[in-house]
Amino acid sequence: MAFNPTFANNEMRILRRLYARAGCYRIDCYSALVRGCRGRSASLVTKTLEYSLIHEMDDIPLVLDHKVSAPEELLILLNHAEGHRLPKDVLFKQAKNSTSTGLATALSRLLKSNEIRSVENGDIALTPKGQKRLIEEINPALTKRLRG
After folding, report:
1. In what order do the strands lie in the sheet with 116-118?
2. CB atoms within 10 A of CB 73
3. Which of 37, 66, 88, 98 could form a disulfide with 102 if both were Cys (CB 3.0 to 4.6 A apart)?
């Protein structure tokens, strides 16, 4: 499947970047792009920007909801990361809303439930099971909480 040619180059660049980072809207955004639904894509882009769960400045992400639990924060940060993986020390450094003890417990539980996994080079990677939980449970709940 190819992207719809009716989009201008600038629009495509923006939408591809959003597609790569959009989290819970990724699948909808991609299918709208492929089908050429310009209005639906614009709606998803607006929704993604307006209710973003992460603010990134100088390539350092910050989860905006300070009430997020440690496991949720780890899943959000891994989903946001390039390739859905980060070194453990970088992941813990980016998780500003949780204590180191809480993060260690969360990491252990997420590893046990196979929502994340440790890879050969020591990185922590998000699994499809963790991504599914993020898309279906965590993102909708946090987006709703941030809206109102």
Report:
1. 85-87, 123-126, 116-118
2. 24
3. 98
pLDDT in single tens digits along all 148 residues of the chain: 344 445 455 555 555 555 555 544 444 555 555 555 555 555 555 445 434 677 888 878 888 888 889 999 999 999 888 889 999 999 999 999 889 999 999 999 999 999 999 998 989 999 999 998 988 888 788 877 777 6
Q: Burial level of 128, CB count in 10 A (0-12/13-18/19+)?
A: exposed
Tokens at 93, concatenated: 């450094």
User: What is the Cα 15 distance to its own chain's centre?
Assistant: 15
Question: What's the whole-model pTM score?
Answer: 0.67
Domain parsing of the chain, residue ranges: 9-50, 54-147
CATH number belonging to domain 54-147: 1.10.10.10
